[in-house]
Amino acid sequence: LIFSIGILVDDATVVVENIFRRWMDAGRTTIGIGIDAVREVGNPTILATLTIISALLPMGFVSGLMGPYMRPIPVLGSSAMFFSLVAAFIFTPWFAVRMRPASLAAFRKAEAREQRTHEFIGKIYEPIIRPLINNRSIGILFLVSIIALTAAVCSLFYFKVVAVKMLPFDNKPEFNVVVNLPEGTALPVTANVVQTLAETLRREMPEVTALQTYSGTASPFNFNGLVRHYYLRQMPWMGDIQVMLLDKNERERSSHELSVVARKLLTPIAHRLGARIQVVEMPPGPPVLQTVVAEVYGPDDATRRQTARDMEAMFNEVEDLVDVDSYMTDPHDYWQFEVDREKAVRNGVSTEAINRNLAMAMGGHKLGDVKRAAPLEPTYIVIQTPLAVRSQVSRLANLPIPTSAGGTVPLGELGTFTKHQEDPYIYHQDLRSVEYVTGEMTGFLGAPIYGMFSVEDLLDNYTAPDGVQISGMPWGLLGPPDNDLQSGFEWGGEWTVTYETFRDMGLAFIAAMLLIYGLIVVEFRDYALAGLIMAPIPLTLIGIIPGHWIMGTEFTATSMIGLIALGGIIVRVSILIVEFVKNEVAGGKDIVEAAVHAAKTRMRPIFITSLTLMAGAMAILQDPIFNGMAVTLLFGTGVATLFTLIVIPMGCISAESRFIKHRDVVAQRGRAAAEVAEGEASA
Known about the structure:
Largest sheet: 5 strands, antiparallel
Shape: elongated
Low-confidence stretches: none
Distance between the termini: 59 Å
Number of helices: 23
Oligomer: single chain
Strand content: 5-15%
Radius of gyration: 35 Å
Structural class: alpha+beta
Mean pLDDT: 88
């Protein structure tokens, strides 16, 4: 809605400005002149509106997780532009007639004000444009400088002055600390470690308002936790800390900054206690398994796991790659009660009774639930022996098991507790065995692609256990290896969503440019003029990329939305100028004077429409998700509008022959029409 408000007034502004300009030129405010003024800007206004719709609509076909987030912009923006066009041609002229100067004195006053405005614009604009069009060398130097400047600002991506990221970090009132101890660790040890970390947070971070710790059980999970499978964290060596923060308006540091501080604070303590931690932020965009994920495949389990361990070591070497872990489990033992079936039968005890009573003692058996009014979730009745008892195998052997005769027999009389080594988990993806190596990005370069490139540099000198030199570039960026006959891996996590989104948006941008070019060719019937009208589109980068650098924001998916939309918006400026030049030349004016006069005449409505778009962008400048689009529209519109008012007149002068050809065609059609009319009159 905010995006649409910024572009809704464009059509009405152009129509109103032209009506009042024609009234001023004619010296009278008649309805006929007003209607003709609307006709004069009718074609360029329709074409300019269609170019914006053409720029927006292809974005509706973006697939993946970002599609539903983005679809309202092309759908609602396009429909809003269509109805604004209808209003500009029907309601706006009617209202302009009602608002025209009521007396001759008011008319003269408005005319004088209009004259002063044009003189003021001319004093600023002509000293800039005249040297460029009168001196060929200066003009060529200016155009070469524009091209060089565009290339220079694009290099800011290469030199990492402006970072690229799927979506920026949000400022939420919470974050989570996931704690993992070595597999097989007892629950009391986990609880002590988690409590130590929680006390450190409470003591060192004044922004923390509440803490809740979980050991051996899953904390309440959100959508992010659902995707990352945190609801499965039920083992004794797993814990996490839910951290609640002050409202974002009551603290100076964002939740991302606080999570970075928490990571630096807790990581040394966790390493000293033998634990691994992950500071998990609530993402503003689509949640994934982890920011950076390497999905490792191989010919057998041993080779695949060794490759994954080696990649985990490489992850740890990358500077901005933190919270490195893998889904592989360390070797550990577990206790199992093996039933002596002969003794159990002799004592009248079934295996089912043994399992049920043992599970009940350990807290894994639900007796029922508490009947309350209308709870969202049931409250189960669970009994279990104290932790001090159930953590000792020797004491569990004294657990009484009921017999069929009505007596009891100690559990130790029915079998023995034996220790076994736990088999490692085998994860599958698309029916293929896989290991996951994960990590999070931190710092200014928070996008996964930067960490992936750093890992790829380390892989240049690495050979997998089966003698294969693996790399994720370029095919690992697009999909898994073709087969499992040799080691290989695929980059997953946030990169998958980033790739799908920017791929689809790139295709949408190409489709938008082709649609806009086709519309311009149909209207002007000239391929070269269509190219001239679209020339200012790259100029938007001169404002967009430095704008992100000035504001200290990443170039995100919403920045790309703004770039695509801006392609259609800035073209309407070119159309208005070129159409005016065409009409002026057709009326017999010299091309140089026509180009300068067109830019001066159209400058005010162009600035008004650009400023309204920039004002709409400023309304969402502080939004964490749409900040990129706001920066793009704010800086891109401002800079591109200024350059367009210089580049398009210069291009029109260079394409003088095209306008003269059009003038001759119009004159020829006029003579033919006159001859036809004369013949009809004679008949």
